[in-house]
Structures are given as C-alpha cells and as structure tokens.
Automatic annotation (TrEMBL):
<dbReference type="InterPro" id="IPR010977">
    <property type="entry name" value="Aromatic_deC"/>
</dbReference>
<dbReference type="GO" id="GO:0005737">
    <property type="term" value="C:cytoplasm"/>
</dbReference>
<keyword id="KW-0210">Decarboxylase</keyword>
<dbReference type="GO" id="GO:0004058">
    <property type="term" value="F:aromatic-L-amino-acid decarboxylase activity"/>
</dbReference>
<dbReference type="InterPro" id="IPR015421">
    <property type="entry name" value="PyrdxlP-dep_Trfase_major"/>
</dbReference>
<dbReference type="GO" id="GO:0006520">
    <property type="term" value="P:amino acid metabolic process"/>
</dbReference>
<dbReference type="InterPro" id="IPR002129">
    <property type="entry name" value="PyrdxlP-dep_de-COase"/>
</dbReference>
<keyword id="KW-0663">Pyridoxal phosphate</keyword>
<dbReference type="GO" id="GO:0042427">
    <property type="term" value="P:serotonin biosynthetic process"/>
</dbReference>
<comment type="similarity">
    <text>Belongs to the group II decarboxylase family.</text>
</comment>
<keyword id="KW-0456">Lyase</keyword>
<dbReference type="GO" id="GO:0030170">
    <property type="term" value="F:pyridoxal phosphate binding"/>
</dbReference>
<dbReference type="GO" id="GO:0019752">
    <property type="term" value="P:carboxylic acid metabolic process"/>
</dbReference>
<feature type="modified residue" description="N6-(pyridoxal phosphate)lysine">
    <location>
        <position position="343"/>
    </location>
</feature>
<dbReference type="InterPro" id="IPR015424">
    <property type="entry name" value="PyrdxlP-dep_Trfase"/>
</dbReference>
<protein>
    <recommendedName>
        <fullName>Aromatic-L-amino-acid decarboxylase</fullName>
        <ecNumber>4.1.1.28</ecNumber>
    </recommendedName>
</protein>
<dbReference type="GO" id="GO:0042423">
    <property type="term" value="P:catecholamine biosynthetic process"/>
</dbReference>
C-alpha cells in the first residue's frame, strides 16, 4: 500500500467506523458465535502472496464485527464502560502515523512533554493535589500507564523497593543479616552499591539492591477483599505476601475497609514477624463500587509507614464533577493514585493516568542505564521509561489533548452525570415488580440487584438466561458469598428508554423462570 492507496482506503476505513457507530443499535450487544468460530473463516496458513485490500476490507464485517462484543451498544450493561470518542480515535490514528517510541525525552520530546502538560491539566480539572503536577517544583509527577493493572504492579514494586531501601539504610540491618542469615549471600558487598544493583565482579552476577528478595521475604501487603483481581496478580508477580482485609458495610452503605481493620492487621502481622509495607486502596470496587475511604485510611498509612496506592480505575474519572469529589478526599496522604480515563473518561483504551507524590524517588527503582538510551538532557529532562516496566511507550497523551481541547471537559462531565442519573433511574425501575432488591445502594453507574428471597443458584440461572437471550448484556458478581447481578450504564448512547428496555427484558425473563 503506497501513500495514494492509503489516502483512498484510509478514508473508507473512517467511513466504515462512523457507519459502525451510527448503526450500532441494529446489532445486539453479544455476538451469536461459539469459541473457535474463526477457524471457519480464517485459513490456518498466512497467504503466500499479498491479497487485494478490498478483499480484506470485505472480510471485516464477517470475521471481526460478527464475532465482536459491542461495548458501545446502548444495551451493553456489563463490566464497567470503556471510553470512546472520535477525537481519541483521531489521536490513535496520529499516534500510529507518527509511530515513534517515547521511552526517553530525547526519543520523542513532544511525546514526553505533551504527556507532562496534559496530565497537569487533569490534576487541575480533578482538583488533585498540586504536588502531583509535572510542573510542580517538588518530586511529584504524572505518567500515562497502559492499564490500572500495570499501575498497581508498579506501585507494589515501588513500595517494596522503598521499604527495602529504608531497611537497608538502618544500622540494625547488617546486624539482622548476620543474626538471621537472611541475605547472607550479599553480606559484605553492600558498600559496592551503585544504582539499583550490586555487581559482584568475581562471579559476574548482578544482584538487585532495591528489589532484594532476601529483604522483602517477610513483607506483607494489604488490600480489601473487594480489590480487583489485578491486585492479587500484582502481589503474586512481585513475590510478596498479600492479606485481603474484610470489607464491611459502611460508607454509602457499600463495602470498604475501615481504619480499625487495617490497624489491627498491621499490629497482628508485626507481632507475627511480618513487615507491612503497602496498603492498596480501592475507590470504586469492581464488584459493588464500594470505597475504601482515603481520608480515614491515609493517616494510618502515614503513622505506620506504609505506602498508600489508590486504584480508582472506574470511579476516579467521576472526580471531574464537584458532586463526586468525595471520591478523592484524602489525596494528600496518597503516594500514588491511578484511574482509567479509558473507562468513564470518553477516551479510547489505553489511557491510565498515574500520579506519584514522589516520582523522582520512585524512578530510581526502575532505572537500568544503557549507553544507547543515554542523552545529553537526561539529568534535567523527564525519561518516562523509569516509571514503567516496558521500555517502549506510545503517544497516549494525544488522546487527552484532543479530547479536552475539542470535546471539552464539560461534555465528559455531562456524560458522567447522565450515567449516574440513568443508573439511579434503573435502581428505581428494577424494584417495580416487587421481585427484586438492591444488594447495595446504587453508586455512580452501577446498580447491584438480586431476586428477593432467592438462592445464589436462582440468580445465576437468571443471569445466564439474560445473557443467552442476547438482547442485553450484564455480568454477575459475588460479595462474601452472595451472588448478585450488576447493571452498569456504559454506552454514551444509552437513554432512559434503553434502561427501561433493560428492566423489561430482565422482568420478562425473571417471570418466565420464577
Ligand atoms: N481496578 C478496578 C477497580 C477495576 O474495576 C478494573 C477493571 O475493571 C481494573 C482495576 C483493571 O483495569 P485495567 O484493565 O486497566 O487493568
């Protein structure tokens, strides 16, 4: 494909995407296919010679869209939303067109600097602490990660490293090494510490300094038993113990961890010889949109010397509106905060801002220098590679820049408010036939409900029947063994009529089954 053909076919592709959006109501949210459907449509071997573009284009409907779950269908009520706007699609086209990789400032200055300034806009719009700004004099900063899961993993590793560093700087540490034998392989070579690692010249082995498993062997981290699965995965991959704290009903009648629960766990675990090092709070749990109250839990973390990370993957964006700012109360205690603009922020996946109180400090834990990455401004300019696992990164900030400039933040606020209002309507509608009850009060775009006087199996049967029917799509969840259905207002196209339609489908199927 040369540039002429690209101009011609690219325009057709834009039309195709716009048509897909305009006609999405004519589809169903879930495809009518079974695993392996692709084998009948796509040959096992790649073609031996290039195929004509028009042939490939003609296959998109059959191979791709017929097998797609339509996340932006007005009757898609599952998971949490994923963002979308023409402005951010444009940004992705441009990012793909520039096709650069911005791991250091030098490798693409505009990619680094636009990210820095667009995230400063976000800090202002959300009313987050000034110290999260890239332009702030202090060591705080913001970066766009790919996902909330990546941010969680980074936070755990940063907290782990900071605790290892603290322990190693204590005079008692060497005494502890000799008494316990823990880390004895490294004994005697701490004085040769350079950055991030210890080079044992005799053996050629490079040992991690900040990520020293001998020191974090007895570390334990905390999260709510309602935290997302990515937190457990982050703990597992960071090789640290995880204690899930029982969330109880409290704030907003929903599930969250109390400060007493956290305090007791820390005390008990210290008595058992463990070293608590991070509390990973959730603002807007996936199961029920519960909140770990940061203004309550933050002081405990400060007092006990724990790193505090906040995963607000879905709910965070709502803090763009004044009436939802209760979600970010206590941000001054937070070491790192993350949310997905690609969920409720009308921005296409992936765009997951993460803010650090002390990013300069944290960046040392992820730093591995190589001559080919060095540049003349590295001591003064930001090199984002030091705050992520991967080296490469793409031009994600274009999405924020285009959306905030051309769509405007008020449009996003309008979407968030409409989402919440429609969810509140659904919460009323679902009670109308007297068969259902709320599991917790509706919060933001999520309503959790179940059949009255029912068993888990009844609700599971209902949920499966609704999804088999395919007119609407939602997913279930459980909290402490109770199964319920989750209805999330996701699509920008969803109206009150769609919510009523959703209620009608649920009532019709429930009447048929029970
Ligand atoms: N955290 C919470 C609270 C979530 O609800 C989700 C996904 O819905 C995630 C993390 C994972 O998000 P990501 O796909 O960006 O890793």
């Amino acid at each position: 494909m040369d540039s002429e053909k690209f101009r011609e076919e690219g325009k057709k592709m834009i039309d195709f995407v716009a048509d897909y959006w305009d006609g999405i109501r004519d589809r169903k949210p879930l495809p009518a296919i079974k695993p392996g459907y692709i084998n009948e449509l796509v040959p096992a071997q790649a073609p031996s010679s290039p195929e004509d573009w028009s042939k490939i284009f003609d296959d998109i409907e059959n191979v791709v869209l017929n097998g797609a779950t339509h996340w932006h269908h007005p009757h898609f009520f599952a998971y949490f939303p994923t963002g979308l706007s023409y402005q951010s699609i444009m940004a992705d086209i441009l990012s793909g067109g520039i096709a650069g990789i911005g791991f250091t400032w030098k490798s693409c200055p505009s990619m680094t600097e636009l990210e820095m300034s667009s995230l400063d806009w976000v800090v202002d719009l959300m009313g987050l602490p000034e110290h999260f700004k890239n332009s702030h004099d202090g060591p705080g900063c913001g970066i766009i990660q790919s996902t909330a899961s990546d941010s969680t993993m980074i936070a755990i590793m940063a907290a782990r490293a900071s605790h290892v560093e603290r322990i190693k700087s204590e005079p008692t540490f060497m005494k502890w090494v000799s008494e316990t034998g823990v880390g004895k392989t490294l004994k005697g070579i701490f004085d040769r510490v350079k950055v991030n690692k210890i080079d044992d010249e005799a053996s050629g082995i490079i040992a991690p300094y900040f990520h020293d498993p001998a020191v974090f062997e007895r570390f334990v981290m905390y999260c709510s038993d309602q935290a997302h699965s990515s937190v457990e995965k982050g703990a597992m991959l960071s090789a640290v113990r995880l204690r899930k704290l029982k969330a109880t009903r409290g704030f907003l009648g929903n599930y969250g961890v109390t400060k007493e629960t956290l305090q007791n766990a820390i005390k008990e675990d210290r008595a058992r010889g463990y070293i608590p090092f991070i509390f990973l709070a959730t603002v807007g749990t996936t199961c029920s949109c519960g909140v770990d109250q940061i203004d309550e839990l933050g002081p405990v973390c400060v007092e006990e010397g724990l790193y505090l990370h906040v995963d607000a993957a879905y709910a965070g964006t709502f803090a763009l509106c004044d009436e939802f700012k209760y979600l970010t109360r206590g941000m001054e205690y937070v070491d790192s905060f993350n949310f997905n603009l690609h969920k409720a922020g009308m921005i296409n996946f992936d765009c997951s801002p993460m803010f650090f109180k002390n990013g300069t400090h944290v960046s040392r834990y992820f730093n591995v220098d190589a001559i080919y990455l060095a540049h003349e401004y590295q001591s003064t300019a930001a090199d984002y590679r030091h705050l992520q696992v991967a080296l490469g990164r793409r031009f994600r900030s274009l999405k924020i820049w285009f959306v905030l400039r051309n769509m405007g933040v008020d449009k996003i606020r309008e979407y968030l408010r409409r989402t919440e209002l429609l969810a509140a309507e659904f919460a009323k509608l679902i009670l109308e036939n007297g068969k259902f009850e709320h599991f917790v009060p509706q919060h933001l775009g999520l309503t959790c409900f179940r059949l009255k006087n029912s068993t888990n199996a009844d609700n599971e049967k209902l949920c499966n029947a609704i999804n088999d029917d395919r007119r609407i799509h939602l997913v279930p969840s459980t909290v402490h063994g109770t199964y319920f259905l989750r209805m999330v207002v996701c699509s920008q196209l969803t109206t009150l009529d769609d919510v009523i339609y959703g209620r009608d489908v649920i009532f019709e199927i429930a009447d048929r089954l029970f």
